[in-house]
Amino acid sequence: MSDHDEHDHDHDHGDHDHEHDPAARRTALRVGALETLLTEKGFVQSAAVDAIIRHYEQDIGPMNGARVVARAWTDPAYKRRLLENATAAVAEFGFGGAQGEHLVAVENGPRVHNVIVCTLCSCYPWPVLGLPPTWYKSPAYRSRVVREPRAVLREMGLELPESVEIRVWDSSAEVRYLVLPEQPADASGLDESALANWVTRDAMIGVGKPHAPERR
Amino acid sequence: MSEPIFADDDTIAPPRQNGELVFAAPWESRVFGVAAALRERGLFTWDEFRVHLIAEIADWERNHAPGKTYSYYARWQAALERLLAEKGLCTPAELEAREHALAARPAGHDH
Fold this sequence. Notes:
The complex is a heterodimer.
Chain A: H1 22-40, H2 46-59, H3 62-74, H4 76-84, H5 86-91, E1 103-107, E2 112-117, H6 126-129, H7 139-147, H8 149-155, E3 165-170, E4 176-180, H9 192-196, H10 201-205
Parallel strand pairs in A: 1-4, 2-3
Helix pairs in contact in A: 3-4, 7-8
Chain B: H1 8-11, E1 15-16, E2 19-20, H2 26-40, H3 46-63, H4 72-87, H5 92-103
Antiparallel strand pairs in B: 1-2
């Protein structure tokens, strides 16, 4: 490994702690080396990479899943379709593509609470939730939520009564899961677009519950 | 003893339109974007990539030195390197050479 830690170039992203971590800087250099090589070989173009990053940062994300959940809350026929074949049901919104094939929706109820994980890596339903948060990919979450889901959920701020069974769904290349949370009692009577604002990413992973949107 | 679930960078991430920040540093977005672009070009499938990602993550979990911070996108980079070598698209030697060339540049020319 080469030593380049004495470099000092804080412009643009100097506010990231990662830039001061030698291991992260080494990986950053390696990533830069790989991209320039692949560009020269004609395998990638910077503009295409930029467009992909923009797409995942701005266009796809948990708001897609929130719209799906809000419709399931307000339209019983849609909810049936979602629970029967989630891939087809989210395609009604135009959501689909990479990492969204074989989507399964799991429904929470008074006695059952579902939570999703990928124990081996980071499988996650991109078209409806975007890319996974950092903690979802952490070794701690991946191993612990299977062994002690109730304790993990409690640490994440979700206290469930002992009477509620917790089901942990391990995502894979074959199946991605989306949790269909229960509609909060105080959200009754709202229309679909208002309800979508109650649905959080964490509620669709199963580590939180839907709640009233925060005022900004 | 249980490990904490939250990584520091997750809790300080500024909110974004669709939730929180997707990438914690520019290089994380580049290595993600490069893999996605190669896959869009049909050079490999996500399933092929995933095999290497799982192996790299498992390897880190078994062998990392105590106190080392886990970096998901560093595993992603390692998995991509292995897959590209396997496919004959980019050899480790080429990559090493380019990394050394980039590291040798004067400060202020890192982009």
